[in-house]
Design brief:
Blueprint (H helix, E strand, L loop, with lengths): L4 E2 L22 E6 L11 H23 L5 H14 L19 E7 L5 E7 L5 H11 L4 E3 H10 L13 H12 L7 E9 L5 E10 L17 E3 L5 E6 L1 H6 L2 H10 L5 H16 L3 E6 L5 E5 L6 E5 L4 E4 L4
Parallel strand pairs: 1-13, 4-5
Antiparallel strand pairs: 2-6, 2-12, 3-4, 3-7, 6-7, 8-9, 9-10, 10-11, 12-13
Helix pairs in contact: 1-2, 2-3, 7-8
Length: 327
């Protein structure tokens, strides 16, 4: 499959007045991804910039290809794209997950479908190679929504998902991040997430999110990523949302559900709803992060109150756009 890859500043439709505030929705989008809010822009080398863009592009290509398959669903696109980001050591999910203060990797993920509002999630897993696949298995093959810890790991193994030695998630970069955080107790705890939203040929929305949580988090801490209504939500009557940022705030403000409610009940555009929650509600309270928001007409908004949001999208005709900051 041939797809043209575009790197267009205009494509992100960010209004000039305030960085990260979504402007008019981007049209004709079938799938969008994010790779978290990222690190300080000044620390991103040209080599890292290139690698990040390449992996975001691979995720979009995988998701788009999945959506083109016969009888494909938006869930297929979401899972395919997130698995690529989980397999990359560059993002805080799966292979690139950060460490707890005890030196472990504890992973969370969730997925939701907008027509029936089916959902599945896992939290605190340590040996599941692709937590997003485990979340879908919980949704499709169990009567539950959220499984945690050892119970989630046993379930994933029973369903034939790939189980790995926890050492698989160890990376030098994340280990050094933990050592720096432990040495300086006042250091801001880093956070990040990956996620995707998609709409299929039948107009069904889906959203998914996966994360390693926060550097130096306490063992057993769970953020917004596996919480339906906080970090992930999908509703065909409104929109699909995947969030990234300081999870405690996203839980307290029910960010994903709040954005959907503004679209579904108040009639706001995806851009208006995303901006109201991320900039007008979350930011004044001290919450940092962003969201990708898609409705079933293929209108996309990307809103964030952090320095950057690693993000990209693919349109119906296969054109890809990727950005990291306000570039």
């Amino acid at each position: 499959m041939q797809m043209s890859i575009l790197m267009l500043v205009a494509g992100m439709a960010v209004s000039a007045g305030e960085p990260g505030r979504a402007g008019d929705p981007i049209e004709q989008v079938v799938l969008a991804v994010h790779g978290g809010t990222g690190m300080e822009k000044a620390l991103v080398t040209p080599e890292l910039d290139k690698a990040l863009r390449a992996d975001l592009t691979k995720a979009l290509q995988a998701g788009y290809a999945a959506l083109q398959a016969k009888e494909a669903t938006s869930l297929d696109g979401v899972v395919a794209s997130i698995r690529v980001l989980e397999d990359s050591p560059l993002f805080n999910a799966g292979r690139g997950a950060v460490f707890t203060r005890d030196g472990k990797n504890e992973l969370d993920a969730s997925i939701m479908e907008g027509a029936t509002k089916r959902a599945g999630a896992v939290a605190g897993v340590t040996n599941v190679k692709n937590p997003i696949s485990a979340a879908r298995a919980v949704m499709d093959q169990s009567p539950h929504v959220l499984l945690i810890g050892r119970g989630a790991e046993v379930f994933a193994a029973e369903k034939g998902l790939e189980i790995v030695d926890p050492k698989y998630f160890w990376t030098e970069r994340r280990w050094q991040d933990l050592q720096k955080a432990l040495a300086e107790e006042t250091k801001k705890e880093g956070h990040g997430t990956v996620g995707a939203v998609a709409v299929d040929a039948n107009g069904v929305l889906a959203a998914g999110t996966s994360t390693g949580g926060m550097t130096k988090k306490r063992s057993g801490r769970v953020g917004d990523s596996p919480i339906i209504g906080a970090g992930t939500y999908a509703d065909n009557g409104g929109c699909a949302i995947s969030a990234t940022g300081h999870g405690e705030y996203f839980i307290r403000f029910s960010v994903a559900h709040d954005i959907n409610a503004l679209v579904a009940y108040k009639g706001l555009s995806v851009s208006g709803a995303a901006n109201e929650v991320i900039h007008d509600k979350l930011k004044p309270a001290g919450g940092e992060g962003g969201v990708i928001v898609l409705d079933k007409q293929g209108r996309l908004a990307l809103s964030y109150n952090s320095e950057g949001l690693y993000r990209g999208y693919v349109t119906k005709d296969g054109k890809i756009v990727v950005h990291l900051y306000d570039d």
